[in-house]
Amino acid sequence: MRKIILAITLVAAMLGSATPAAAVEIKVKTSGGTEKIEGFDSGQWTYLNLCELSDIIGAKIEWRKIGYSAVLTVDGHHFRFTVESPYVNCDGEVNSLVLPAKLIKGALFVPAESFAPLLDKARQENIVWDPGAQMLRIDTEYFNITDLAINPKENGTLIEVFTSDSVQYQIYQTEGNWLNIEFPGGKINRTKIMAVNSPAVIKIDAFQFENSAQLAIQLRKGFSKFRQSYKTDPRRLQIAIEDESFVPDSTAAGLTTRIGPDDKVDIIVVDAGHGGKEYGAIGRKWGTREKDITLDIARELAKLLRKDNTFKVIMTRNKDEVVPLNTRAKIANDARADMFVSIHCNASTKKTAHGFQVFYLAPAKNDSARAVAQAENAPFLVDDPSLKTSGDGDLAVILNDMIQTEFLAESADLAYMMDMEMRKNITLKSRGVDHAGFVVLNRVYMPSNLVETAFISNVDEEKLLRSKDFRKKSAQAIYNAIKRFQAKYEGK
Ligand SMILES: [Zn+2]
After folding, report:
1. 123: CA distance to ligand 1 center in Å?
2. Pair (169, 124) in one structural domain
3. CATH of the domain at 152
4. What separation in Å is there between the alpha carbon of 385 and the centre of ligand 1?
5. What would the DSSP string read from start to end of 420-457?
6. Span 344-364, pLDDT tens digits
7. What is the pTM of this model?
8. Are residues 379 and 471 in the same domain?
9. How far does residue 347's CA lie from ligand 1's centre (Å)?
């Protein structure tokens, strides 16, 4: 009898070690406030419910083989987890979570300690796991060195380092033709430092130290002389690197292109969603009409752009009227505009759905990607009447292979700038940047975005959308992003 009891105890102990020890509540702190998600203490580290977290950060989880492998997509980065395996494939690179991913009641759990640094690399914000507070901190105000642009010019190369506030810096050269920029107190967004393909630059490294950040730029032979200046609106450090082999054409003396902007980013199309009998979504409590909100934000944005003498603004509508989606695209294309920004309000049957979101258009490359895009599109299309009544708004047309891909990278970059500026200017949660096949964006041959400012179907956010202050702040955020984009891309 005693043996049997012992055996049962042993089995129970073994089972116990395989199932979560103690359930804990994990806090996720974002600019939009603190939310709680499910977690458990494994005895070693704390696991968090990745499905719940992905909802908060605007990511997506897709199961590849039910109960076996899942892919988390965050801001264009892919993490593939395998249940009971500690390995995670991040964009093709294998990393270890130390402890295995767990599948519990259909949800994927991962150790917060080891997953937070991986997520941190993929996101623009600083993401830190605070074990004491059992809190995942997603800090949007963290970086002050936010982006980098390298533009080749006729007589050299212009490197621009974008900053969110005025930062101190010190430039010095070291052996091997390295140009180093030291930022005391700098916090650098390393996700923005990409591989370069430039006549002047071999490579760029970014380093984050405890009290400073550093950019190390290795220059090619014949490129070592530079000039520097600091510009505002948007704030950026400009480093002009001279091409020492450049010989100005004597016949065109005085006409040589200087290092600096030439091609302009100045014609901006502001598209107020819906209009006329196309009301768009309707607010749950006050019956607010999306078409009125979008027009007001569009007008505020146009006002800001016009005040800035570097822009020419075209509005697809400036009154309460129906403008077919094709016509909107035609207006933009005929004007040979440099950018198209469509303004909308989100809506959901889920009352609690909240936050802003920026979309750019992306084509579906193959049947499985198409199926994913179709699934991603469906809720939006249902929620957005203008997309259904456009006349050619069926998915086959939306997802056709004719979709322009030329401005994909610029559109994605613009979307991230919009997302960043929205995070700074309005207090709502970011649902992350996403892509989908939108009719209104699919025919415009220029960088384009669609901004869902807030959920009109959420009572709190409907109230916000009704306030002039919120609409002005939204317009200001979009304007700041356009300025940022202009500064980065002018002269390319
Ligand atoms: Zn809409």
Report:
1. 27
2. no
3. 2.60.40.3500
4. 7
5. HHHHHH--SPEEEEEEE--HHHHT--S-EEEEEEEETT
6. 998 888 888 899 988 887 653
7. 0.56
8. yes
9. 8
